[in-house]
Amino acid sequence: MTGRPTAMYQRGMRQLGRLSMYRLVLLALVALGVIALALSLVELVLPTPLELIATAAVLVAVGSAVDATAHRILRLVWRPESTLITAGILLFVIRPGLDVATLAGAAIAAAAASLSKYLIAWRGRHILNPAAAGATVATLVGLGGSAWWVGTPALFAPLLLVSVLVLWRTEKLRVVALFFAVAVVVGAVRTIAQLSASGASMPLETLLQGVLVQSPYLFLGAFMLSEPLTLPPRRRQQYLVAVVVGVLAGWPISLGVLTLGQERALLIGNLIAFAFAARGAVRLTFERRSALTPTVQELTFTAKRPIRFTPGQYLELDVPHRRADARGTRREFSISSAPEDLPTIRIAFRESRTGTASSYKRALASAEPGAVFAVTGVWGDFTLPRPERGPVLLVAAGIGVTPFVSQLRHDRLAGERRDVVLVYVASGAEELAYRDELEAAGVRTIVYTPDDPRDLPAHWTWAGGQRLTAEGLLRAVPDLGKRHTFVSGPPALIAALAPALGRAKGLTTDAFAGY
Fold first, then answer.
1. Backbone torsions φ then ψ of 317, nearest 5 degrees
2. Mean pLDDT of the chain
């Protein structure tokens, strides 16, 4: 993705980043539910208005009761958002109804989905998608069960819109697009094979409508496959899971009374993902905090057990606290320490300059040494190629320097040498975090600050107070076309630099939308 598409993509990320992933998913499901209710009034979807309302009420009530009870027993902070998201997904997956048996099936699905979060989990990580687990249990007991009525022509356009927004925010567009393509192709081949075997035929437009518009594939991919806690850490692993789930969803394998289609396909994908990611979840003991700059705090933790990560990857830190705002209780942080530092792990975050810090930041800032937090996993493909693959350009804005600190520290400790140019943008000279660590790396560094950062080492250059622009980047790094470029910073910066980044040998971005 280069040039203008990069700029547009990052501007969209900047806007979507105002909401947590979980809040955006919840709002998307609510919007879809309201649209479905309106369509049910004119009989454009299968359920009636009363069936939708009654089923939704049962899903929310039972899910809330189970989650609240489990959190009280386990002494955890209940996250109503998680409960509502699971209920919202199940509403579109199971069969809505008004009879006792169907509503009992909905209750069983909601209870099983909630319980799976605690009973089928590993060190704070879901092993199975809760909604898929709940729908499967309801199907096995013979009450209600899955219907996937979301696959209907009247819902396809709004579903496509909210799906794009959700996947844009979660950065899973490519993964889900691959899954969708595989499922559609396999589903079409299966339909053609069945028609051929029976001597029947079907118009092409009818076939395409069946596998594209009337299938559950889009909803399954956007709202279930994309769940971060049940995906593996690396993109190539996510692609593998997407292909496996796509094949099984497109061509369900019959096992007597049960098939391996839709939610069971996803559960198999979840197990494959868990095999890749089981070592990512770990608990960290908070040791100390230190001020790197007037606004940047570094937090040091000790891992309670071995953890693996590649320099440039990020972890998701769960900081439960009451009255969490729209940003939620989980946040992603690039790891600034190197693998050689383990079991010590360091992350950094910038304090709010406006005095309106998120509830998450306030809770993290008030943590005392000895506090234990859960890392739900380690993810990311923002990793450098092998040194022999060619020179690289690193562009960091503010706290976006943290993954580069990990990478350069690892190179130094491991004795690896590579051709690196670092462009470091900060709001002021006093905001150059990790200056000592970066100076020790010995790489050519170009600093963009409005004021002069005095006493720079010989391999550092101050840009003279200029703002970093696309034209300025091309002047500062004339051999950019020979370098694979890595950019870590806010979407607005990546969008502004897009004209220059389009000329790079390769481009990898790590955009963050704030906390």
1. -105, 125
2. 89
3 state SS of 515: coil
| Cβ-contact 448, 454 below 8 angstroms | no
Among 134, 113, 103, residue whose Cα is nearest residue 70: 113
pLDDT tier at 33, thresholds 50, 70, 90: very high
Burial (CB < 10 A; 0-12, 13-18, 19+), residue 162, is: buried
Residue 111, helix vs strand vs coil: helix
Neighbouring residues of 133: CB distance < 8 A, sequence distance ≥ 6: 112, 113, 116, 120, 263, 267
Question: Does the pLDDT at position 494 exceed 80?
Answer: yes
| 9 vs 467 pLDDT, higher one | 467
How many CA atoms within 13 Å lie on the side-chain side of 241?
31
H/E stretch holding 153 reads helix 153-170
- Where do the domains of the chain lie, and which CATH numbers do they carry? 3-277 (no CATH), 282-379 (2.40.30.10), 387-511 (3.40.50.80)
Burial readout 236-248 (b: 16 or more C-beta within 10 A, e: otherwise): ebbebbbbbbbbb
Q: 473, 503 in Cβ contact below 8 A?
A: no
Whether the CB-CB separation of 321 and 77 falls below 8 Å is answered with yes
Q: Which pLDDT does position 515 carry in this prediction?
A: 39
Strand partners, 447: 424, 462
Q: What are phi and psi of 163, to 5 degrees?
A: -65, -45
pLDDT score of 69:
93
Choose among 103, 137, 105, 104: nearest CA to 119. Answer: 137
- Cα dist. 415→389, 419, 434 in Å? 17, 13, 20
> What confidence tens digit (pLDDT) does each residue in 151-193 have?
999 999 999 999 999 998 888 999 999 999 999 999 999 999 9
CA distance readout (Å), 372 to 285, 302, 319, 365, 376? 5, 10, 9, 14, 13
Mean pLDDT for 465-482 is: 94
Residue-wise pLDDT for 86-142, tens only, equals 999 999 999 999 999 999 999 999 999 999 998 988 766 789 999 999 999 999 888
Alpha-helical segments (H) within 223-342:
235-250, 263-277
Residue 378 CA to residue 476 CA, distance in Å, equals 34
Q: Is 354 exposed, middle or buried (0-12, 13-18, 19+ CB in 10 A)?
A: exposed
Burial of 478 (0-12, 13-18, 19+ CB in 10 A): exposed
Q: Which of 150, 119, 117 is nearest to 230 (CA)?
A: 117
Bridge pairing between strands 506-511 and 484-489: parallel
Q: What is the dihedral of CA 371, 377, 378, 380, to 10 degrees?
A: -130
Confidence of residue 514 (pLDDT cuts 50, 70, 90): very low
